[in-house]
Every structure is written in structure tokens, then in C-alpha cells.
Write a structure and sequence with these properties.
CATH superfamily of the largest domain: P-loop containing nucleotide triphosphate hydrolases
Protein name: Putative ATPase
Number of helices: 14
Organism: Actinomadura macrotermitis
Strand content: 15-25%
Number of strands: 9
Distance between the termini: 18 Å
CATH class of the largest domain: Alpha Beta
Oligomer: single chain
CATH architecture of the largest domain: 3-Layer(aba) Sandwich
Helix content: 40-55%
Pfam families: ArsA_ATPase (PF02374)
Radius of gyration: 24 Å
Structural class: alpha/beta
Strand order of the largest sheet: 1-9-8-7-2-6-3-5-4
CATH topology of the largest domain: Rossmann fold
GO molecular function, one term: ATP hydrolysis activity
Order of helices and strands: EEHEHEEHHHHEHHHEHEHHHEH
């Protein structure tokens, strides 16, 4: 396990597709957006892709809902641009039909008739092929001079419990097509997904269930030969009390009378005992959470992946906070 604290280089030289997954509620969309900003810093061009249709990227960057087109949403530190794309499955399927079957008009008619929803419902593997295919196309896309349009692509991917199935589209389409455009398209996607240019990152909190899902997800990716990236520990709560005080709070031996004296010294003599009791209870809860975090850190230390830590932002998440997280990722060598 590599726990990067400070670095000038990046752990992911040569990686052009960063897939970000995590258990629901861990903040994977926030981490994906911060990673895109970090990767774009210094004059690079990065595409941030959303595949779940929640418009989470638009909310983070405080912009209107994204249409099905690539739009610039932020300027990175020291120059560089972050573009964003919210993939609409219906529009992507019409685009797919036009590209491989020259059926643009038919595709739009199918969309109006609801056939698109029907097709992707009975063949969910096709939906994943479309979503991953659009992303991998952006990774491969080049300018006329042969340079890549985007220096990197970041995908805000489905949750950890679905990520292996989502990315392993070759298996998903095996029951749909053995040959033909769908098969060929899936093979092209897998060449990108399985290549050294791809890394699948996991976002977790220092809590039992997210950490367990992260460890299970890493195991599952290794089992099918998909490239595992780093572990991003989000919203870590820093200890607010000295070690001795934390230990006393955890085992219930805090000196409540001393707290009462401190409350009175602060000019809160009336109801000092009640206030002291509340403070003692808060200290105990904080001590238990800190101990839980340390236990989960020890579990993550067994994982052979680079690990990055993002703090809990006291003022909540806004655009300024996103830039703060991007800076933290750069300092730790994640971009």
C-alpha cells in the first residue's frame, strides 16, 4: 500500500481514462469532479463524463442542466479546461444506430415510439455498451494533427456494487451478439478499458460498509483482469481533541467536574452542569468515531493501491470547496 502525503509527480502517468466508483453516499461524483479539475491544472484539457443521468456534475459546478453535448464547465488552476458530458442513453443509442447502421431517422422514430427504452430494458448489457462506448470514443478521439482531443477523461461511474459488470461489457454482450457491429464495438471498448491507459478508482468513507464494498470491488476487478486505480478516502474527520482526552472520552473517564469549571470560567455559570454533560457526550461520540476511522484505516492498509485522503469541508461543498479538494489531490500525487 502506498499512502501518498505529498508529491510533485503523479501516480497515474500514462492513464487517460479515470473511472471513479464508490458506494452510494461516499461522494464519488464530488471526487470525480475534483479529480477532473486536478488533472486539467496547468493547461490540460479534461472531459468529465456522467453516465447515471442525475445531473450531479451540473450541480457541483453551479451551471444549468447539461445537454447531450460536451460543454466547458470550469477553468482549472494555472489554466486548463474541464469539459463535461451527461450521457443520455436514448440520444447515445440514436447516435450509435447512425454510426453503425446509418439509421439516424429510424433511430429518432424509435425514440418517439419508446422502442429505445424497450430495447435497453430487455438488453441492459446494450445500455452499458452504449455508455462505456461513448466514453471510450472520447478517450480515443484525435485532432487533425494526431494529438488527442482530451488529455484525460474522467467517468463518474455507477456504484461499486455494479462497477465490474458495467465495465466488463464483453461478457454482457456475449448473449446479444457473437459477431457484427455490436460485438466489434464491445471489443473496441474493452481494448480501452483493459489497457494500461485506464484506472478504476474507488471512493470510500472511513466506515465499515463503504470500506468493505471497496475491498470487495477491488477483488472483483482483479478477478476479471480490469485495472484497479487508487482508493480515495473522502470526508475524513480530523481529531479535535488530544490523544489523552480522546482515550478518556472513549472509556468514560472524562473529568466532568473539570469541564464544569471550564464552562463556568467561560461565563456560563447558569446551567453549567447540563452544558458540561452535553459536551462530555459529544466528546465520547467524537472519540468513538475517531477510533472507528483508525480501525478502517488499518483495514485499508492491507490494500495494495495508492491511497489519498480528502478532508471533511467545514463550510460544506461548493465550487470553492471543489477547487480545494482538487488542490489536495494534486499535492498527494493523484493528478
Amino acid at each position: 500500500m502506498v499512502d501518498r502525503v505529498s508529491a510533485k509527480d503523479t501516480d497515474w502517468d500514462g492513464v487517460r481514462l479515470h473511472v471513479v466508483t464508490g458506494k452510494g453516499g461516499t461522494g464519488k461524483t464530488t471526487v470525480a469532479a475534483a479529480l477532473a479539475l486536478a488533472l486539467a491544472a496547468g493547461g490540460r484539457r479534461v472531459l468529465l463524463v456522467e453516465v447515471e443521468g442525475r445531473q450531479g456534475i451540473a450541480q457541483l459546478f453551479d451551471c444549468p442542466p447539461l445537454p447531450y453535448e460536451e460543454r466547458r464547465v470550469a477553468v482549472a488552476p494555472d489554466g486548463g479546461d474541464v469539459y463535461a458530458l451527461a450521457i443520455d442513453t436514448e440520444e447515445a443509442l440514436v447516435e450509435y444506430l447512425e454510426m453503425f447502421y446509418s439509421l439516424k431517422r429510424a433511430g429518432k422514430a424509435m425514440s418517439k415510439l419508446g422502442v429505445v427504452d424497450f430495447v435497453t430494458t430487455i438488453a441492459p448489457g446494450l445500455r452499458d455498451v452504449i455508455l462505456t462506448g461513448k466514453t471510450s470514443e472520447a478517450v480515443r478521439r484525435k485532432n487533425k494533427d494526431g494529438s488527442f482531443v482530451y488529455d484525460a477523461v474522467v467517468m463518474d461511474a455507477p456504484p461499486t456494487g455494479r462497477i465490474t459488470k458495467f465495465l466488463n461489457v464483453n461478457d454482457e454482450v456475449s448473449g446479444l451478439a457473437k459477431v457484427g457491429p455490436i460485438r466489434n464495438h464491445a471489443d473496441t471498448v474493452m481494448k480501452v478499458v483493459r489497457s494500461p491507459e485506464t484506472a478504476v478508482h474507488f471512493v470510500t468513507l472511513l466506515e465499515e460498509m463503504p470500506v468493505q464494498e471497496t475491498m470487495d470491488g477491488i477483488h472483483d476487478l482483479h478477478a476479471v483482469g480490469l485495472p484497479v486505480g487508487g482508493v480515495f478516502v473522502n470526508m475524513e474527520h480530523p481529531p479535535l481533541l488530544p490523544a489523552e482526552t480522546l482515550a478518556a472520552a472513549a472509556d468514560g473517564t472524562l473529568d466532568v467536574e473539570e469541564i464544569v469549571r471550564g464552562v463556568k470560567a467561560a461565563g456560563l455559570e447558569q446551567d453549567a452542569e447540563r452544558i458540561a454533560a452535553v459536551l462530555a457526550a459529544e466528546a465520547t461520540a467524537h472519540a468513538r468515531r475517531t477510533a472507528l476511522q483508525e480501525r478502517e484505516k488499518e483495514r485499508l492498509a492491507t490494500v495494495e493501491q495508492p491511497r489519498y485522503t480528502l478532508p471533511l469541508l467545514s463550510d460544506g461543498m461548493d465550487l470553492a470547496g471543489l477547487y480545494e479538494l482538487a488542490g489536495a489531490l494534486r499535492e498527494q500525487g493523484a493528478a
